[in-house]
């Protein structure tokens, strides 16, 4: 807790200040925009950017993580609350805070129980598919606001403003940083400059509203933003604890996954160490804080954290400075915020989520492992077809499905001896000799419930193909673990082979695996021997060897 | 299909006939009893024992599997239908058949899609916990019928009959087979004799009903059993497809798991080979057949199949004989079946499920692997606390949870050289020498999304403990696979180490792993080299070696 503060050095200050200012300028439009995605008034997004990062700075372990509203979590908030209340009503805002509270409590509980390993239930391809699906859902959801009307009808002044903002943002994204670099701006500064374009576009569009009288033309704006800091209070609807519980579990899980995947990338760059259990507590505290200060579920945002990092953030002081600046913005006159045109905000959201449509993972997986590529595409399709909440469940199911599917086809080799040596190799890859009545099988996978059946089937096939087999030697050099299911399977295999008059032998059992097997009855009951090496098994069991 | 019939030999006939007769005598009370567990009239249990085994014999692959009503599947049927209709009503019977139809279609679809690997989602300890929890739920559910009333009040004549039957059954179970053996009966015959005690007890109790006038005393009986064969028809309520879909998925999954776990044990004893995809189709056809002939969801029963096997069944002809005998029983006068007293049937159910309360798996897991033991107990508790349907989900979650938890703590060793040799061993276990600036790490697990974070953390820890490290060598001799998530993690590790001026090298990469890595950009971008052996890496990278 506050480890970074105890080791603070003065040299860290300039970087923290510049990052704090830059992120604050990025946060104002982004926070308001993501509040809109969550179905809330824009000011809630500012509220959710003040207290949460302060609490995360107290309890979290990443030094550069920027905690606050985030597109996917806002989408999940909206889709969780949609069946319970109408967006824009006081009940909806209450439930959003209550959802943050419950998600925060879920995260705190997971942190106290030290079950940070739950982040490992999502494979990276599945996470990528989830992000792609969510981005598309968010972008499609912003089309009406961008065009100022319900599709297919559109409101021309709104559409011009929205599409104009979109074109400027897209052009800036692809052209500004290279142009700045070409005129001699350092590449870090150029990149940061490009990140501030959304703020500039929103400000420009806001100026246009009174200048061109856009409100009179029917362009919608954010409307009055209440001045002053958020008031601490616990808003909760007591009839809604139960229906919010499942959404809170799913959102809490995604808050943790999204935050960890971003923070890990940054931590790796600076050789920092994250502690997943403290991250759970930091994110839990941040969400409880968001709930108590008029906010909604928040998490670490990879895009904002990357800007924070690039702009020089050395410690969480940068986030504290951002929070202080946002608080100042609320204390200062907020009248101008009321004029922010919604089509321009929608354009910033669309451009932000388009940036999340990364196809690198898909392309890599496609070349490297089609099962992972299929899981990625299926997760994206699941989010699009079934919604973002079901998408989380689909993602876990597909991560596990790909794992078990792969496990269900383990690599197993029949070994033979390279003549004149003590080396044993796959008879299909090498010209190796086998001995009559002796079958050597090497299983290249840990033995567990996911592959015991496949291993059994393969053994049965090999025995059927060699009816004269008298000794089966399982070479366990590649077996890192044997779980209880596999232990039972081995015991049953042993019994079966005994009744068929075939010896079951184990060779090259690894130390930790052997230590564990000694806790079971298998070794005592083994209808055969334990050999240190395959060569020893060969010498003892092959009839040729015996006759020499 | 019918492979067994094409290879039928006359010598198989006596065994098939004796098994067919024995199982039919076991099936009559069991089928009726499990129909009661499912909330259906007893005759439905006989119906569900005629057509399903015939269809399974046509499409399934196990030669000795006895398909029909089974306790856990009946419990799941009852708990799925409870919210939709009242037991005993025509709608309830219709929905039971519809559930069998949907479950059958789910199984057929899984078979056509060839996804038999889904059986691998349950670990053996979790299956044991699920069975224990379900057995307790079933036994408790039979107490009112056993005692003839709602607890705590009981109906004395019923209770005497029920408890009396229970005592006889329990005594027979533990004493009869040993006594028979002692007087010289062969042990197989003695065991089969003991299995027929339920039929004898039910018959004896049925005789007592008219003799003692028990009906007049208020003892409940099965009531009129309609004579005649089941009529083929499709009963379905069109408003109930949707609410039955999720139960059908869960029941279909458990039908497959329960049947496979029993069939595998028997197949192993005879060196038969099961094909999981054909099993899905056989069980699917059996359930569709059950639905069309007035039955309810059915599966292979391990206890009945074991009797079938022990009584000499050589092929599915035994099951066909059983089905024919049950059909005959329905064509013969069925008046006497109406007098079967429910307390005696409840006693047979309780004794049957007590036989499923096997603690061997728990005791083995407790000694061998506490995580598996905890998963077993938690699954049993989940079934008791949340119900049998939620228990399936809990079981899958715990199987996967134990897997990911274990994966999240991979065994990683820092290697050193055994002086004067080319052998490298864990420095914590052996006195081995290390070289300045060179860190050799051996990861004893396949690299995948479940452990990449733990591996990263460990690498970071080891580098932090050795700030002078210039070269990190990952020794991958125990790595059987690297998935896409781990590929990305290695690429990021490579980038990070490059910026810190540390080389990343790979040694002893297995053939299949290397083949796959060549499909990625990792090897081209590697900030270091690929070494065939750890000794070669040592020679190239250790400063000592270089000076020689």
What's the number of domains of chain A? 2
Distance between the termini of chain A: 71 Å
**How large, in whole angstroms, is the Cα Rg of chain A?**
30 Å
* Unreliable residue runs of chain A: none
Q: Would you report the number of β strands of chain A?
A: 8
- The global form of chain A is elongated
Output the structural class of chain A: mainly alpha
Major sheet attributes of chain A: 6 strands, mixed
Question: If helices are DSSP runs of H or I spanning 4 or more residues, what is the number of helices of chain A?
Answer: 24
Strand line-up of the largest beta sheet of chain A = 4-3-5-6-7-8
Biggest chain-to-chain interface with counts: A-B, 70 and 70 residues
Q: What is the percentage of strand-forming residues of chain A?
A: 5-15%
Give the oligomeric state. homodimer
Overall mean pLDDT of chain A stands at: 91
Instruction: Work out the helicity level of chain A.
Output: 55-70%
What would you say about this model in short?
Chain A is mainly alpha-helical and 548 residues long.
Question: What are the defining features of this structure?
Answer:
SLC26A/SulP_fam (chains A, B), mainly alpha, six-stranded mixed sheet, 24 helices, transmembrane (chains A, B), 548 residues, 2 domains, elongated, homodimer, Transcription Regulator spoIIAA, transmembrane helix (chains A, B), SulP family inorganic anion transporter (chains A, B), STAS_dom (chains A, B)
Secondary structure layout plus pairing:
The structure is a homodimer of 548-residue chains.
Chain A lengths: L2 H4 L6 H25 L4 H6 L3 H9 L7 E2 L2 H11 L8 H23 L11 H24 L8 H27 L4 H9 L1 H16 L28 H30 L5 H17 L6 E2 L1 H9 L6 H15 L10 H13 L5 H9 L1 H17 L1 H20 L4 E6 L6 E3 L11 E6 L8 H14 L5 E5 L8 H16 L3 E5 L3 H7 L4 H4 L4 E2 L2 H8 L1 H5 L1
Helix pairs in contact in A: 2-5, 2-13, 2-14, 2-15, 4-12, 4-14, 5-11, 6-11, 6-12, 7-15, 7-17, 7-18, 8-9, 8-10, 8-15, 11-12, 11-13, 16-17, 17-18
